[in-house]
Amino acid sequence: MGDTRAEVKALASDTRGFDLFASSVSFAASTFQTAAGAAAAFGASEEDVAEVTKNLLAVDNIANGVRGIANELTTRGTA
To answer: How far apart are CA 41 and CA 34, in angstroms?
Structure first.
């Protein structure tokens, strides 16, 4: 029943495309985070880890911005 509710909610969203984009950006941020952790754990050079961390920070900032915009659009009904 919960799955059906989640599916109906997703399909009924006025910002469905934006929601999907926000989810994709969050996925990318998680992927970079995993890569940074794996690089550090498996002994990558300090420079490589710093580069991955820099990319992670950039993607994470984008993800936070997209989530903030999505939140504003859905909670204030400005869509």
So the answer is: 10
Q: What is the DSSP letter of 79?
A: -
Task: Answer yes or no: pTM beyond 0.70.
Answer: no
Q: Which of 76, 77, 68 is nearest to 14 (CA)?
A: 77
What distance in Å separates the CA atoms of residue 57 and residue 51, rounded to the nearest whole number? 10
15-23 contacts: CB < 8 A, separation 24 or more?
15/70, 15/73, 15/74, 15/79, 18/69, 18/70, 18/73, 18/79, 19/70, 21/66, 22/63, 22/66, 22/67, 22/69, 22/70
The pLDDT tens digits for 11-35 are 666 667 777 777 887 888 888 788 8
